[in-house]
Amino acid sequence: MLEFSRDDENTKEVITIEAYEQILKEFDASVCEALAVNQQSSGRMTEAYIGYSSKIFTRLCAHAHCMIRAAPMTRWVKTTYHDWDLSEVAGHTRAIMEGYLFYMYLSSKPISDDEFAVKLKVMHINDCVRRIKIFTSLEDERLSFYLDEHERLKQELNESHYFKSLPEPIRKQTLSGRYLMIDTRDELLEKFDVDKKTFDMLFDILSNYIHILPISFYNFEPNGRGSGLFNQSDLEYLYICMQLCTELLKRCTDRVVEFFPDVQEYRKGSKSIINPGPRENLPQIVKERQNSKKKRRRK
Length: 299
Fold this sequence. Notes:
Elements: H1 17-41, H2 48-70, H3 87-106, H4 113-138, H5 143-158, H6 161-164, H7 168-175, H8 185-191, H9 196-210, H10 215-218, H11 232-259, H12 284-298
């Protein structure tokens, strides 16, 4: 089970800058492998549940890419200083946590075509309701289309044998668009082997940094926490975020490889070939083109 522990203040091991550098390398490798596998498996004809879930994996890769670029001491960005603040990665970490559950849920092999159709329509309704809210505020002409689409999807769900077998409260909430997934977060955490206490605690902390809430500034310290300067508190939270995201990315990447075994050969840690990415990770042909452009500019 995926979890981390924070012992009492008298006995817990202090996370050092060396430990942070090590987890940064591990996270870097997991990001490179996820990007490589995603790029090598894209555009293939496959079963619907694999195809739809691949879009979620792509969004996971996008957040992982942004996160590794934002992390202090990353090799992905040249900078004259490092900003030691949890806010640098808070939003991307929370997105990866949510995305992990969503990806594993939608990419799980369905027991029937009807079950997957229901999962998909529940997701579509959630999207419809969100768009209806936006377009109502904007008084946008597209509003009528999504209102009709919502009604159509509700009718189709009510005709499904699998949907009729679900508990009435779930049917009610999914038809209203309140639920993105049929399973609750707690059910998904148990199913996909993530410690609930760990997940909930970190998710709540990150939410306070995504929004400007008191927890994010009550603990400011002179020339330390909250200033962007190096400090132990943000170092530990940055470490924990990368530790968790490294494992979640690996699990998702493993599942993609299960679907497309031939892409395993592209998993080469931080040396995986990706584009875009750091120069040392670019395909040779891209490096050669960059060299040619530099030569022409010099002339």
